[in-house]
Specification:
With 143 residues, the protein is α/β, with parallel strands linked by helices. 52% of the residues lie in helices and 15% in strands. It contains seven helices and five strands; from the N terminus they run E-H-H-E-H-H-E-H-H-E-E-H. The relative contact order is 0.19.
Length: 143
């Protein structure tokens, strides 16, 4: 971990949030550990606006706008938002990532200088990441 006074954090990918909010088996328990560690302050948790939008899009298919907004409001009560700025976009466009969205998440985390680990179920999609990438089960087992 970083020696600075400010605790580094994790970028919580949308699949983790969706696992918990939709009780998606068999992933919900490990994903819940990830979010709980952010909510209780054990870990600093971050998302991007894109993660929030993706989560809204998936949840809205089965839930009302008001219900989804209530769930997202609770999340942003304990998860901070990092920006996807121009530098992250340019790095993403010039990267070896096969998935542009994953590249955006990765470089937003990298450029933010607040995140040292990305927690996602799609770890293989982040093989070009220069920061640590963990699955929810790896994260849960590391606590």
């Amino acid at each position: 971990m970083n020696d600075s006074k400010e605790k580094m954090g994790i970028l919580v990918d949308s699949d983790i949030i969706i696992d918990v909010l939709t009780y998606r088996e068999p992933f919900v328990n490990d994903s819940r550990v990830v979010l709980q560690s952010c909510e209780d302050g054990t870990q600093r948790g971050f998302i991007t606006a894109l993660i929030l939008a993706n989560t809204y899009y998936v949840l809205r298919k089965e839930n009302s706008h008001i219900d989804v907004i209530k769930q997202l409001s609770k999340l942003i009560g304990f998860l901070d938002v990092i920006n996807i700025d121009k530098a992250a976009i340019i790095k993403s466009m010039n990267s070896d990532f096969a998935d542009f969205e994953d590249a955006l998440q990765n470089y937003a985390a990298e450029v933010s200088d607040k995140v040292d680990t990305i927690v996602t179920r799609n770890t293989k999609d982040y093989k070009h990441s220069s920061i640590s990438v963990m699955s929810p089960s790896e994260f849960a087992n590391s606590l």
